[in-house]
Amino acid sequence: MTQAPPGGPGASPEPAEAGERFLLVQAGTDCCALPLARVRRIVRELQITPLAGASAELKGLAEFGGEPLPVLELARLVGASPGPTPLYPVTVIGWAGPDGALELVGLSVDSVVEVVPVPADTVVAGGEGVVRGEAAVGERDVRVISMAALGRAG
Q1: Using CA atoms, how far apart are residues 9 and 36, in angstroms rounded to an integer?
Q2: Does domain 22-153 fall into CATH 3.30.70.100?
Q3: Of 14, 25, 88, 89, whose CB neighbour count within 10 A is largest?
Q4: How does residue 56 score in pLDDT terms, banded at 50, 70 and 90?
């Protein structure tokens, strides 16, 4: 399932000074920010078929739109401790990988929190992995996720 998301992965309906918009999700004990332009859909937790020998981060495959969809455990990807058992876990379906080579993946998360702008100058760089950096959003410290790096990791 490779294709370009509407408006492209960097598209943002807000002016640059307002900050890129992010979807905040709870993944274990961590709050993570996913670039909203890379989010396609949020659905109830999908039924997953585990894959023998897969890494701990890969929960397995689910069916989405008649196609197989790899589903990753976001909490494991970012090294978060498990939180309380979520009441209504969800799967965030989004575009992972570098521009021009996007693939749909599912991210298993405990809950969706809200959509917020995060100005780029407030993100403290974190490295070259899945966590692009960290930022303070209101009263929360959030881990900003790189969906481009997620494509390489998943």
Answers
A1: 9
A2: no
A3: 25
A4: confident
Q: How far apart are CA 22 and CA 132, in angstroms?
A: 13
Cβ atoms of residues 80 and 30 within 8 Å: yes
Nearest residue to 93 (alpha-carbon basis) of 72, 79, 118: 72
- For the stretch 85-144, pLDDT in tens is 999 999 999 999 998 999 999 999 999 999 999 999 999 987 778 999 999 998 999 999
Close Cβ partners of 48 (under 8 Å, ≥ 6 residues apart): 59, 60, 61, 62, 71, 108
Domain boundaries, the chain: 22-153
d(CA 74, CA 26): 9
124: left (phi over 0), alpha (psi -120 to 50) or beta: beta
